[in-house]
Design brief:
- By secondary structure, the protein is α+β, with helices and mostly antiparallel strands.
- The protein folds into 2 domains: 2-58, Zinc/RING finger domain, C3HC4 (zinc finger) (Herpes Virus-1, 2-Layer Sandwich), CATH 3.30.40.10; 79-201, Enolase-like, domain 1 (2-Layer Sandwich).
- It is 29% helix and 20% strand.
- The protein has helices at 2-24, 48-58, 134-148, 192-201; strands at residues 37-39, 45-47, 79-86, 98-105, 108-109, 120-121, 124-131, 153-156, 166-169.
- The strands form 4 sheets. Strands 3-4-7 form a 3-stranded antiparallel β-sheet, covered by helices on one side.
- Helix 3 (134-148) runs parallel beside helix 4 (192-201).
- It is globular.
- Pfam families: DTC (PF18102), zf-C3HC4 (PF00097).
């Protein structure tokens, strides 16, 4: 009886283990056995060629957990970022002054990375504000890094005018007003600095 019970219990356990091992040996992109397996820092594994195709389509982002494994470079046109320190405080940050960021993107011709290569795009000047405290300066450093990697702006359709061929913000939110709260893209907004750091982190900027 013990022998039969053992015989009845063990095979499902063994086959379950084999099934698990088999699934672990398949690429989650092509669902076939690994060819030139590559493991990312997040421990997810893929065929080298499958990962290369995924990176070409979506950038160096793990297809499973979305962790960035390389340097993302955007299609932001050439421009200039500068900042200055102002003495007045922002609402909600009355113990420090203000960092004023200035962005200048000149007009030019769209490249192969843009929606309509060879066509004209219209440049912009934008201003944004941060509190001049430790966290505000940390965000400034991250925004500079994002700007250098061409991630702050892109070329597309303006959300406000609906016109094509415009330099527009690219999903990293800025406070373009010193007051009026979130509805006016201004302060006070206690969660803004932590939110923008998460947006930057999603693009590999940290």
């Amino acid at each position: 009886e013990d022998t039969n019970r053992k015989h009845n219990i063990d095979p499902p356990t063994d086959s379950g283990k084999r099934a698990g091992d088999q699934s672990d040996e398949r690429c989650p992109i092509c669902l076939d056995k690994f060819k030139n397996k590559r493991q990312l820092n997040c421990k997810h594994e893929f065929c080298k060629d499958c990962l290369k195709q995924a990176e070409k389509a979506n950038g160096p982002i793990c297809p499973i957990c979305r962790v960035v494994f390389g340097k993302i470079v955007g299609d932001q046109p050439d421009g200039r970022m500068s900042h200055q320190i102002l003495t007045f405080p922002l609402p909600g940050y009355f113990d420090c002054g203000t960092i004023k960021i200035s962005y200048e993107i000149s007009s030019g011709t769209q490249t192969a990375k843009h929606p309509n290569p060879g066509q004209h795009y219209y440049g912009i000047s934008r201003t944004a504000y941060l509190p001049n405290n430790k966290e505000g300066n940390e965000v400034l450093r991250l925004l500079k890094k994002a700007f250098d990697q061409r991630l702050i702006f892109t070329v597309g359709t303006s959300r406000t005018t609906g016109m094509d061929g415009q330099v527009t913000w690219n999903d990293i939110h800025h406070k373009t007003s010193t007051s009026g709260g979130p509805d006016c893209f201004g302060y006070p907004d206690p969660e803004y600095l932590s939110r923008v750091k998460e947006e930057l982190k999603a693009k590999g900027i940290e």
